[in-house]
């Protein structure tokens, strides 16, 4: 073309969680039954929506106004309800105008980074969740800027690493954290969150916290929301109903904005996000209207508690199956519904892979793994040999070799069988 129309950050848009799906479908056509462990969709893995939540949604479906446009920032009554809930936590106080709805948090993240000045960088965790890391890298045109999560300390943030990277890189405008974390399942204690906020305050930054899994914190684990620790520092919390109703197909997420009145630049930035939403008219109406009814229902606290324990029990089960395998490190998550496995022995980067019983699949996998990261070689071999579809850890913006699986399979027998098969596969690959 006469002019190059490709965005400078186009090459940074990678989502390994979905990229493996095309190959999985290809191998399925060659005869391999696929066990989907790559993506965090509880409904797809057999978890039913609670009947009483379905009843609430059904009652809204019969109302004409659930099909109409709502305000650009989101349904006013829902925003007022959520603001009241934030204020009840006892930390930073917000109003309805500090809440902005999006068509899922993917839309929120895209809007957030699209309207961030290109020279302004957001320092994020490594391993990193792909949507956030790719969006940050794409907006800047450079690789995502990261701090270290330490597997030897239950995947907690390396505070010294954060402090040094903020101090010596004045392009950093914000610090990103995910709590509970995806992909590691780490949950950060209040003291850690306070230390990160302190660094942001000292260097005049804002804090961006993905709290998608805030209501999936395992029994006995303590943490805090960003609103409880942010003080007078500018901040944004990202929340959603996708994982906790669960209703991922609703595409309903929102931002909680803290202290936009205390910094003129931050306030203008938030205004630009609302202006962008006005161009889209509004986000989906029906799920927004369901939020106050579901959240305020007397059954919801029990619903949250039951699911958190369920995933904690499944994490115990998976760790008990995998933890005695030489050559890997498995750390029980403290929240969310993922399990991250790290190889602590060197993986082959070339040469033959263990046998696969289907010759057509074996040939295709050999082609795929000819020039990829060592953990990606394992993941694609695993897919071809067993049908288990996981995500290589190198796809999460880290040099640590490993993979991420889920704790979502609702069929107890199938879930145990999947992890037992995975254990055998790891031993086979490493021997």
Shape: globular
Classified in CATH, the superfamily of the largest domain is: Type I PLP-dependent aspartate aminotransferase-like (Major domain)
Q: Strands across the major sheet, in which order? A: 2-9-8-7-6-3-4-5
Task: Provide the domain count.
Answer: 2
CATH architecture of the largest domain: 3-Layer(aba) Sandwich
The secondary-structure element order is HEHHEHEHEEHEHEHEEHHHEEHHEEEH
Poorly predicted regions: none
Q: Determine the number of helices (DSSP H or I, runs of at least 4 residues).
A: 14
Measured as a percent range, the helix fraction is 40-55%
Question: Could you name the CATH class of the largest domain?
Answer: Alpha Beta
- Structural class, by secondary structure, is alpha/beta
Over all CA atoms, what is the radius of gyration?
22 Å
End-to-end Cα distance, whole Å, is 52 Å
Strand content: 5-15%
Task: Predict the CATH topology of the largest domain.
Answer: Aspartate Aminotransferase, domain 2
Rounded mean pLDDT is 94
Short description:
By secondary structure, the chain is α/β, with parallel strands linked by helices.
From the structure above, extract its key features.
single chain, 431 residues, alpha/beta, Aspartate Aminotransferase, domain 1, Aspartate Aminotransferase, domain 2, 2 domains, eight-stranded mixed β-sheet, four-stranded antiparallel β-sheet, 14 helices
């Amino acid at each position: 073309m006469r002019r190059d129309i490709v965005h400078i950050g186009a090459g940074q848009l990678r989502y390994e969680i979905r990229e493996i799906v095309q190959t999985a479908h290809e191998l399925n056509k060659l005869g391999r039954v696929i066990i989907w462990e790559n993506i965090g969709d509880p409904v797809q893995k057999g978890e039913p929506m609670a009947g009483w939540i379905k009843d609430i949604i059904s009652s809204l479906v019969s109302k004409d106004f659930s099909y109409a446009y709502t305000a650009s920032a989101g349904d006013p009554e829902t925003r007022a309800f959520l603001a009241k809930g934030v204020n009840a936590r006892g930390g930073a106080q917000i109003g309805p105008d500090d809440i902005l709805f999006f068509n899922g948090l993917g839309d929120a993240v895209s809007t957030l980074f699209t309207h961030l000045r290109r020279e302004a960088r957001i320092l994020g965790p490594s391993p990193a969740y792909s949507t956030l890391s790719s969006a940050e890298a794409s907006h800047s045109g450079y690789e995502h800027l990261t701090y270290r999560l330490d597997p030897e300390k239950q995947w907690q943030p390396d505070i010294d690493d954060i402090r040094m990277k903020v101090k010596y890189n004045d392009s950093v405008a914000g610090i990103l954290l995910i709590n509970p974390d995806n992909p590691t399942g780490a949950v950060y204690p209040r003291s850690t969150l306070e230390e990160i906020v302190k660094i942001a305050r000292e260097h005049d930054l804002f804090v961006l916290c993905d709290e998608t899994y805030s209501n999936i914190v395992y029994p006995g684990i303590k943490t805090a929301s960003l609103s409880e620790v942010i003080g007078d520092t500018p901040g944004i919390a990202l929340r959603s109903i996708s994982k906790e109703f669960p209703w991922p197909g609703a595409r309903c997420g929102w931002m909680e904005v803290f202290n936009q009145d205390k910094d003129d630049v931050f306030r203008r930035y938030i205004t630009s996000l609302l202006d962008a939403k006005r161009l889209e008219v509004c986000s989906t109406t029906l799920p927004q209207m369901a939020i106050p009814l579901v959240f305020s229902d007397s059954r919801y606290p029990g619903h949250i508690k039951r699911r958190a324990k369920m995933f904690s029990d499944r994490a115990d089960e998976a760790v008990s199956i995998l933890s005695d395998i030489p050559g890997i490190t498995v750390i029980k998550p403290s929240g969310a519904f993922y399990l991250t496995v790290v190889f602590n022995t060197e993986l082959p980067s070339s040469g033959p892979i263990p046998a696969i019983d289907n010759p057509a699949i074996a040939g295709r996998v050999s082609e795929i793994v000819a020039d990829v990261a060592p953990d990606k070689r394992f993941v694609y071999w695993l897919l071809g040999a067993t049908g288990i579809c996981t995500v290589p850890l190198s796809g999460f913006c880290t040099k640590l070799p490993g993979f991420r699986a889920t704790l979502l399979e609702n069929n107890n027998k199938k879930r145990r069988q999947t992890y037992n098969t995975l254990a055998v596969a790891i031993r086979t690959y490493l021997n």
